[in-house]
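Troubleshooting entry. Yesterday's outputs looked truncated, so today I'm pasting the complete records for two proteins to confirm everything comes through intact. If either block looks cut off, that's the bug. Protein one:
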Amino acid sequence: MADGVPYVYTILRVTPCLERGESFNAGVVLFSRPGRFIGARTMLDERVFAALGGPASLTDVQQRLHLLEQIATGDAAGGPVAALEASERFHWLAAPTSTVIQPSPVHTGVTHDPAATLEHLFRRLVVR
């Protein structure tokens, strides 16, 4: 691990009103097979969500984001998808399955500490 380990990540974007096409970053999912790590951090900015409007419920989106975190970590409360192998969970999380919460294209990098990199990406890409 002297040179670091490769990782992939996707940004979770919330689109409260699909017709308007406006979205904002609400989470990051990071996976590193060699680093034996998968995790997700999410945060729904309620002010931005309300400003963009739309039919999506704030509570429903918050619950869905929390569920995605549970799936990433393999928490049994995340349901059957959470029981999959880490790589399968990441691919499931990085696949478009919702019109309200949409993953970005997958990005890559190299790190010495996947958990710290997840936190760094979360702070840089999600926290306002």
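Protein two, checking that the full record survives here as well:
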Amino acid sequence: MPAQRYTSMHQRPAASNWAAIPLRLIVGYGFIVHGYLKLARGPERFAAVLAALRVPAPALMSWLTIGIEIVGGLAILAGAFVILMSIPLATVLVVAAVTVHLPFGFSSIKLLAVSADGAQFGKPGYELDLLYLACLVALVLGGSGPLAVDTYLSNRTGKLRAAQRASS
């Protein structure tokens, strides 16, 4: 059987429309967990980290980052306002990559040793930040996929416009 060729995005297999779901689930959940951990440990502890990094207004930025991660993560998970929410989420990732992870190189996993206590790892590089950024870009360019608030809203808006045109 010859390989199928697709000349436009509209001709791709229907299964590819579902590719956004695992991206939304892992990226959304990841941001929620990161924000929740900062909140659970105390925003003042995260503010102290930001102050050590010379981030201006560390207390405000601590709360802002936590809010962006939790609210943005929930939005990505639901496929809601993905394009809009990707902007502050990407900003958090870029700032983290440049201020925290860049000095430690690319790799997020640096096995230093294995002892009786288990594996010992070094400080993480910016790899994970880039993976999250790539996933956000894929969601922005490829859409939220099925079972997403954005898809529901888009379909609803399209139906309303069609109804308005039909009644005109």
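Both blocks look complete. Sanity check on protein two: The longest helix spans residues 20-41.
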